[in-house]
Amino acid sequence: MNGRWPQGAGLGFRRELLPELEAGVPEAVDFFELAPENWAGMGGRSARQLRAFTERYPFVCHGLSLSPGGMLPLDVDLLRRIRAFMASHGIALYTEHLSWSNDVGQLYDLLPLPCTGEAVRWTAARIRQAQDVLGMRIGIENASYYVAPPGAEMDETEFIRAVVEEADCLLHLDVNNILVNARNFGFDPLGFLHALPLERACYIHVAGHHREPDGLLIDTHGAEVIADVWQLLDAAYRRTGPLPTCLERDFDFPPLAALGAEVAQIARMQRRAGATAVAA
Fold first, then answer.
1. 3-state class of 70 per DSSP?
2. 97 strand-pairing partners
3. Which residues does 223 contact at the CB level (< 8 Å), separation at least 6?
4. Where do the DSSP E strands lie in 142-197?
């Protein structure tokens, strides 16, 4: 599929931000990310507003409802709409979560998959089907979760590697999700990062999270990125190089200038990582 591949540092494209974005996009923002379910098929003023940005900036589609690991038949009609939407706006990258999110209907939550061989085969087959419909390889994101499914036959990094290799897809790396899960389940985030198939990484997310009084971390995308997440991003860049990286912010929005400062932090880290790679 033809389109503009993202480069540099990006920001989630949210309707709440549109008035400020239309007044001026922060200098550090190189691309935007959106959920295609929220924009595909949209007409009128919303469509015109989006077109004004897709004509100027590369975009990434980050899906919310495909449910790669779910039991219901894959929504091929949705994929066809997404393919047409991406072609219309020159979007080259689509990613989704390694999770399931439907049963008798859409659950509006991203639930973890059991780390079993059967789940690998089932999920990889559905990802291959999605890639066939979209006509492109897609990125699959390591997800946050709060209950680990029973019956694991392998650890999570082995499961992720098996899925992306069997599906022949790409890895969408979310460093905040790694940290949230590591703190909640008591494992080493850096060790987890290095065990992932980073040779397949194509795209990275950073975000903020919420800490409950009992210490539980909730992946909210509603707060500033903390130092530990920035450090994990830096460690990722040392392995992957400065891949395109998006700041996720879904609610409790600060002024756009504050989000621009976080995107600028991504850009500075990317420049540093690029300079280090050249020196090496």
1. coil
2. 141
3. 208, 209, 210, 252
4. 170-174
> What are the C-alpha distances in Å from 72 to residues 82, 122, 138, 230?
19, 12, 20, 37
Q: pTM of the predicted model, to two decimals?
A: 0.95
Beta strands 100-102; 245-248: pairing state: unpaired
Comparing CA positions, the residue from 181, 170, 155 lying closest to residue 204 is 170
Distance CA 130, CA 147 (A): 27
**Which residue in this structure is represented by tokens 């494209």?**
13
Give the β-pairing of 100-102 and 106-111: antiparallel
Q: What is the CA radius of gyration of the chain?
A: 18
pLDDT per residue as tens digits for the range 151-205: 999 999 999 999 999 999 999 999 999 999 999 999 999 999 999 999 999 999 9
Which two three-digit tokens encode residue 72?
């219901």
Distance (Å, whole) CA 150 – CA 225: 31
Does the structure show a pLDDT above 50 at 15?
yes
pLDDT bracket for residue 107 (50, 70, 90): very low
For tokens 């780390």, the residue is 115
DSSP 205-257: EEE--EE-TTS-EE--S-SPPPHHHHHHHHHHHHHH-S--EEEE--SS---HH
| Helix (H) or strand (E) run with residue 270 in it | helix 256-279
